[in-house]
Write a structure and sequence with these properties.
333 residues; alpha+beta; Uridine Diphospho-n-acetylenolpyruvylglucosamine Reductase, domain 2; Uridine Diphospho-n-acetylenolpyruvylglucosamine Reductase, domain 3; Uridine Diphospho-n-acetylenolpyruvylglucosamine Reductase, domain 1; 3 domains; 4-stranded mixed sheet; 8 helices; 20 strands; globular
Length: 333
């Protein structure tokens, strides 16, 4: 355990904040030993979904569980258990090298494996819950290992039981996914995947081609945290009843949406923010990215409080214009 550790290398916003005490958890035995001494004030994965607005008084534990193990296999499918501290995108690439399909549409999503089920990550028509089998997690107070299956995680849109009822109660140590070995179910219907494949001259796409297309699309829209601090999409895309959307549409005929089950729709938050004049806008050390209004950025010397205040201003602007309240996808600490 180390004292007074800078968390700047551990968050993709590149914000300066200090942990009073800092340790890495890389085994259940080691984690339990840490928990016997002190309850953590913060658990960090890849730091790609957190906004640090202050120094952390107490213990910060970095999730460093590493593993890639085949736990079950049939002629058609394979179940792989990943350590929660593994980098998500690197695991996607590893799966592609093995010929395993199911998460190629989720390429280049930042963060760790352990963070993926917490917010049920999704992109380009695919969500984690479609391939999720189970996860193992340690209860921070009871210090017991528990297994959660798909149903018990209570997945929703960018949501799970770990963001609701069990928020802050568990440390996820592993995640098991079921992937296909052949006859992959390919989804190129969402966003610009099909157009990008055509531009690349791909007539019969496979899982690697789809991953490459997603990487190309995301790279063109989302900034690299190594070059400019950010946490990807800062706000969730609002989901509402179709009837509510139609009321808003009467005043704003150009508003766009995507149909969801049960008479609901999803409205692109980036579009809403852009319509309010925030795309590429800069206020001091922070603002939104020039290519994607949904991404808040650190231009070099921003504090977490500055970024948070900018987020509040964006929320106010969108609510004033559209009467829609944006909800942060990033965890504010």
């Amino acid at each position: 355990m180390r004292q007074n550790v800078s968390l700047k290398p551990y968050n993709t916003f590149g914000l300066t904040a200090f942990a009073e005490r800092f340790a890495e958890g890389d085994s259940i035995e080691g984690l339990l030993d840490l928990l016997e001494k002190e309850q953590p004030a913060l658990i960090l994965g890849g730091g790609s979904n957190v906004l640090l607005t202050q120094n952390i008084h107490g213990l910060v534990i970095k999730n460093n569980f590493k593993e890639k193990t085949i736990v079950a296999e049939t002629e058609d499918t394979v179940q792989v258990r990943f350590g929660a501290g593994e980098n998500w995108h690197e695991c996607v690439l590893w799966c592609l090298e093995q010929g395993y399909g199911g998460i190629e549409n989720l390429s280049l999503i930042p963060g760790t494996i352990g963070a993926a089920p917490m917010q049920n990550i999704g992109a380009y028509g695919v969500e984690l819950q479609q391939v999720f089998v189970e996860l193992e997690a340690v209860h921070l107070q009871e210090k017991e290992v528990r297994t959660f299956d798909n149903k018990e995680c209570m997945f929703g849109y960018r949501d799970s039981v770990f963001k609701g009822e069990f928020k802050g109660q568990y440390f996820i140590v592993s995640v098991t996914l079921q992937l296909t070995k052949h006859s992959h179910k390919l989804d190129i219907s969402y966003g610009a995947i099909q157009q990008t494949l055509e531009q690349a001259g791909v007539q019969t796409p496979d899982i690697k081609a789809i991953s490459n297309a997603v990487i190309r699309i995301r790279s063109g829209k989302l900034p690299d945290p190594a070059k400019i601090g950010n946490a990807g999409s800062f706000f969730k895309n609002p989901v509402m009843a179709k009837s509510q959307f139609e009321v808003i549409q009467m005043k704003h005929p150009d508003i766009i949406c995507y149909d969801l089950p049960e008479e609901h729709v999803k409205v692109p938050a980036g579009w809403l923010i852009e319509q309010c004049g925030w795309k590429g806008k800069r206020i001091g050390n922070t603002g939104t990215h020039i290519n994607q209004a949904l991404v808040l950025v650190n231009h070099g010397n921003a504090t977490g409080q500055e970024i948070l205040q900018t987020a509040y201003q964006i929320q106010d602007a969108v609510h004033d214009k559209f009467k829609i309240l944006l909800t942060p996808e990033v965890n504010v600490v």
